[in-house]
Design goal:
Blueprint (H helix, E strand, L loop, with lengths): L1 E11 L4 H16 L4 E8 L7 E7 L2 H9 L1 H10 L3 E12 L4
Antiparallel strand pairs: 1-3, 1-4, 2-3
Helix pairs in contact: 1-3
């Protein structure tokens, strides 16, 4: 099975991690019901750095592109921009290994 994995590492501005988590709730809930979405999670670093990482799994590049154009994704971007210091995004075209 082939799929797309997205790792979006978010560094919040000081004191803004809880705000980003709260803003993310609607994005995550809505995205999980999108056609072509396999999984969508938000993880928080346990090393006291407040780093947040979105871990996404998509059936195809087209499904990911449709998500990025969706109103809920666009709304999240606009709402969260002032609270984010930095964001690093890695997109991986992957095939599941049967071991």
């Amino acid at each position: 099975m082939s799929f797309i994995v997205v790792l979006a590492k978010v560094t919040p501005k000081k004191g803004c991690v809880d705000t980003i988590i709260e803003i993310s709730k609607d994005l995550i809930e809505t995205t999980l019901s999108e056609e072509g979405n396999i999984d969508y999670q938000l993880l928080q670093s346990t090393d006291d750095s407040d780093i947040l990482t979105f871990v996404e799994k998509w059936e195809s590049p087209q499904a990911l592109q449709k998500h990025m154009a969706s109103p809920h994704f666009q709304s999240f971007g606009a709402e969260s921009a002032e609270f984010i210091e930095n964001m690093e995004i890695q997109v991986i075209d992957a095939t599941e290994l049967k071991l």
